[in-house]
Amino acid sequence: MTTATPTVAAGTQKTDGTPTTTAGRVRKRLNSRTATLVSIVIAVVWTIPTFGLLVSSLRPEDEIKTTGWWTAFTNPQFTLENYQQVLFGRSSSSGQLAGSFINSLAITIPSVLFPLAFACLAAYALAWINFRGRDWVYISIFALQIVPLQMALVPLLKFFSTGVTLGGVTLMPAWDLVDEQKFAQVWFAHTCFALPFAVFLLHNFISQLPGDLMEAARVDGATHPKIFRTIVLPLITPALAAFGIFQFLWVWNDLLVALIFAGGGDETAPLTVQLAEMAGTRGNEWQRLTAGAFVSIVVPLIVFLSLQRFFVRGLLAGSVKG
Amino acid sequence: MKFDFADQQPKFLMLMYGLVAFVLVVGGLLLLLDVVPAWFARRREAQLVAASVGGGPLPRRRKQREGLFAFFFLLPTLLLLVIGLVVPAIRTTLLSLMDGTSTNWVGLRNYGWMFSDDSIVRVLINTLVWVLLVPLVATGFGLIYAVLVDKARFEAVAKSLIFLPMAISFVGASIIWKFVYAYRGDGDQIGLLNQIVVSLGGEPKQWLLESPLNTLLLIVIMVWIQAGFAMVVLSAAIKAIPGDIVEAARLDGVSPWQMFWQITMPSIRPALIVVVVTLTIATLKVFDIVRTSTNGNYDTSVIASEMYNQAFRYGQNGQGSALAVFLFILVIPVVIYQIRNLRQQREG
To answer: Which residue ranges are recorded for the region named Disordered (chain A) (predicted)?
Structure first.
């Protein structure tokens, strides 16, 4: 995915600046200026819905409910009351999102770590250990990306609630989890569902590492675990970051898995579940919905904006092969 | 303020258990992987000594050890995939042939229901509209924008703004757009869309209640989220077009239009396919937007959200499973196409 090489960009830019006639040069500049202008206008339009929500979430309740958010510019009235309410509110109807925020964190952190560790172990084995049937194992794992997670929901829920019995013998008892213990189910589900893509993505990176390096280490008598820990892991840190961000955004933003495996209780429901609930039952309480939506958006936005570079790299490794 | 940090303690405790489990599992595995080879090395040494003393054949263990390593490296992944995906997928397929309570076999009746029940046929049609429109519009927009913004000033900022919705959850995005679509019967409008309509002299509408318009409006949300993905991937592909090709075309006096169709498009074809395929799969599984915006009411339901309703709200496991299997069948050809393309790309 060595795509956006600066040399290419520099090369084409030089040809840009050399139209022969003055008229041509002017037209060129106008063209690129129009393009710049249009693209900025589109970008602004794209951002307006989010911006409107942000402005609204800072306005007093009756202002939100009676006038459009754009009037805030002529009649500015701002407050943090809405955030106070949805985060720490007295009644359960206010959302009490501070608790859900912690739920989201507790769900997300292990759900990122587990697949990351398992997938890079597996990807290393598939890329650099010679064993029979290696290609078949890789293709099978890759192909599992086909299975929509909807197909796994009903049986997996049963797996947790009744355990596994084979011919009358209990292989695994029911998990019987209550309240915050249900986090374990969500971690398990997210880890399973993430693995095919994680193995695929990390395999792309790991298999591109220079073979000489591995060869040299093997000759020196290094074992696979040693090579994995001392050579491979440091080299693929950017790839790990890329997948980590992917998985973080995916888990933090997920609704379906959380809805089914965490349940809707305040003890376990992450932000997305609470918000969806609020949108359904109190769809007109805009002061809470807007503030709540922003609470749920803010963490992924920070992660995204600060680590965008890695995210894009991971995206391109998974899709565009150079 | 009622919020009490002490109440949250069990959650942090649970999180800590999770982290401890993580360290134990991964650390244990790595430790095991270090101990096993050491053990084998000792055994091999002993065998070598025995062989040299007794004059027997030299032991050959190299191949098997590789396989053993691979097995341990792959063990957690394979185990979880079997428990979490393979077995459930098979079970779901079986459940789709049983009745709502998963006790009696009903053959293909659930599939018959799927194609004869009017409301479900509606769901299938909606899904078709989603799958046709979202990849097409999002990719088209992403492509135009990528060409437009290429080498423009403020390129990075402009791209980031389009890409930003990718970080927002579907639930968050749905709320953002619910607010855009919001309706007030009397007085000032608070939704941007109705305000625009009113200022143009129109009547405000309850956008999300009007079928089939509401499905299109939900599709707008998905396009809004996904166009940034298409744009980023296609933009990278455009930048990867070799500079001398572009230069040569310029020297030949090619117009921008010809440049686009004869140079840019053929060069980015593989990336284009990947984007369309990825978006198609994502669209087929779309659930959050429909659930948050309309809960599947007013004729907006799609397969993924209907599957949830049937299996988890109405207790119709059989019908829900049949919908899941149907979703699976729809995804297969798309993925096979993608695999073939990836292979061709690698060879070519």
So the answer is: 1-23
